[in-house]
Amino acid sequence: MEPSHYISLEETYGAHNYHPLDVIITRAEGVWVWDVEGKKYLDFLAAYSAVNQGHCHPDIRKAAEEQMKKVTLTSRAFRNDQLPLLYKRLHELSGMDVALPMNSGAEAVETAISSSSEPQYRDGFGPYTPGFVMIDYGDADALEAAITGSTCAFLVEPVQGEAGIRIPPDGYLERAGEICRANNILLMFDEIQSGLGRCGLLFAYQYENVEPDGLIVGKALSGGFYPVSAFLSRQEVMDVFTPGDHGSTFGGNPLACAVALASLDVIVNEDLPRRSAELGAYFLDRLHTIRNPHVVEVRGRGLFIGLELDEPARPYCEALQEEGLLCKETHENVLRF
Length: 337
Prior knowledge:
By secondary structure, the chain is an alpha+beta fold. The chain has helices at residues 3-13, 46-49, 58-68, 83-94, 105-112, 119-122, 140-146, 172-182, 235-238, 254-269, 272-287, 314-322; strands at residues 25-29, 32-35, 40-43, 98-102, 153-156, 186-190, 214-217, 229-233, 295-301, 304-309, 325-326, 328-330, 334-336.
C-alpha cells in the first residue's frame, strides 16, 4: 500500500486531534524506525518518553510474551501474582510507601487530581471543576501568594514537557517543598514524561533536595508495550481511598504488571539514567554550537531537550525528516528532542 493511501485512510476515518509528520512507521528497534518504503530513521521523540528503553526491547517483549501465555486480566475483583511484585519494586525505586496502578498517564494524574493550564486542552471542555488555581511555572513567590486556607495540594512537573521542555530555576522545587510543608499542603510531582531516566536521574525532581508527598509515573513504565501508570504516595495520603472509591478494570492487571517490572529492570540494569545524562550533555553541547539567528534558546536535562525558535518549528521537523531524523514541534516554535 502506498504511503498516500495510509494517510488518506487516516484523514478520512480518524479524528483530527493530532498533526503527525507524514512518515508511516511499520517497524522499530532500539532508537531506529523504518517506514513502509524501507527508509530508516533515527527516532528523536521516543514516543514522548514512553520508550526510554528503546523500541521493542527484547527483555520486555519476552516478559510480555510469557505473561500472555498465562493470564492477562483478572480485574481487581481478585488478586494476581504480578501486582504485589510491582508494588514492591516501585517502593524500592521511588521511596514512596504505596502505589495505585492505572493504565494511562492521564488516569494517574486524575488519581492524584487532574487539571491543566493548557488553553487547547480547556477550550470547549467546560464547565470546569472549581478550585484549581494556575500559577506561573518556576515562580515560588506566586505559589506562596496563591495559597489560602482551602489549598490542599500543589501539582507540578519538575520539567515541563508539552509546554516546550521548560526547566524551572535552580532551587524552585526545594523552595516549593518548604512552602508546602509550612502550609500543610501536599506536594505532588508529575513525572510521567520527565521521570524514569529521561532527565538523567531516575526522577527529575532528584536534582534538588526535596521529597514529594505524591509521584505520578507512566509512559516509560510500560517500555512502550502495554499502557501502565501509577500514582505513588506516602501511606497517609493513599489512606483516603477505601474499597469502591476509585477503580479501573484494567488497572493493575497481570500483563501490565509483568511489562512494568521488566521495563523497570531494563532502566536499572542498563543504567539508563546515567546514559541519558551522558548523551544529553553531549547533544546539548552540540546544539549550542548551532549558529542560526532564529534560535532563541536551547535547554534540557538529560535526553529531554528543547530548541526554541522565533518562527514555526514544523518546517524544521519536516526538513529533519528528509535527513532521516524524526522529532516533533511543540508549542509551535519548539523542536522537541
